């Protein structure tokens, strides 16, 4: 009598090796728990029952940790992982992938990219997959500069944070120099002869909010101009925020405005025109981000400061490969934000 064969994991049905995800599903635990058990992670808090289920699933499915690495003639893979929350779907931030990919290729590595859309389960699975493929290390990136909580699995390999940071994590981070960028934007307006310069800043606490404001103040101080808090206008960091601020800009008698980002500048353009003012004849406008789809196509084209996304990705790979190190004790590397002059100042 023929007996039905037991169900096999989907990976076996496809003829590929068993993965941590297969083991996690069979054992009823998370991918992170499987990783801790098979790698004998010291200090991992795993119950005896969960550990037993993982071990039984490993034996039943024939899972072999790091099977790929054993087949590589060089003794290790030529892969670098990049795990991102949404940069692949964000046009200007997608340059991080481009920069990392070009730098990886230059040193004989292939970039494995996983865009998780901020889904924690997908993120853990992506990191686990990269660990199974014995990546040289992982770049972990966010689409805007912010502090993060480091996923636990990232501590199992060399990791560099890109466009984000985690204080006291011990992980090196490559981030844009927000203060330098704010200073550069303000200096461009000062160089055009403006002395009464307003700043439209975001209402959202972030490194960009504090850093760009610090750069604005620093440039004014260097030029011998007293900081005037009444010229700093908090606004929603979107087109609507810039448009809504236009009446107050007109009342302030400012001759130039540094905007938190290009979307704010776009809204300000509309608001100033409704008040019969021309750019740059009556008011000069400076943006930030260099979102080309906005800045280069406004009329007049918007002078701005670029977020160095390509350079962030490339620098992340160099730090990961040990070709460059962070220069500060907190393992933070700040990348210069360059000026992009056009016709709005």
What does this structure look like?
The chain is an alpha/beta fold. It folds into three domains: 10-65, 434 Repressor (Amino-terminal Domain) (Orthogonal Bundle), CATH 1.10.260; 70-175 and 310-337, Response regulator (Rossmann fold, 3-Layer(aba) Sandwich); 178-308, Rossmann fold, CATH 3.40.50. It contains 13 helices and twelve strands. The protein has helices at residues 10-13, 20-27, 31-38, 48-61, 67-70, 95-106, 120-132, 178-191, 207-222, 239-252, 262-274, 292-295, 309-320; strands at residues 79-84, 110-115, 138-147, 159-165, 173-176, 197-202, 232-235, 256-259, 284-286, 304-305, 332-335, 339-340. The strands form three sheets. It has a six-stranded parallel beta sheet, sandwiched between helices. Helix 9 links the parallel strand 6 (197-202) and strand 7 (232-235). Helix 8 (178-191) packs across helix 9. GO terms for molecular function: DNA-binding transcription factor activity; transcription cis-regulatory region binding. Residues 18-74 form the HTH lacI-type domain. Keywords: DNA-binding, Repressor, Transcription, Transcription regulation.
Helix fraction bin: 25-40%
The CATH superfamily of the largest domain appears as: Response regulator
Provide the spatial order of strands within the biggest beta sheet: 2-1-3-4-5-11
Mean pLDDT: 89
Shape: elongated
Radius of gyration: 25 Å
From the N-terminal CA to the C-terminal CA, the straight-line distance is 86 Å
Under CATH, the topology of the largest domain is which? Rossmann fold
H/E series? HHHHHEHEHEEEHEHEHEHEHEHEE
Structural category is alpha/beta
Number of helices: 13
Number of domains: 3
* Low-pLDDT ranges: 1-16, 67-74
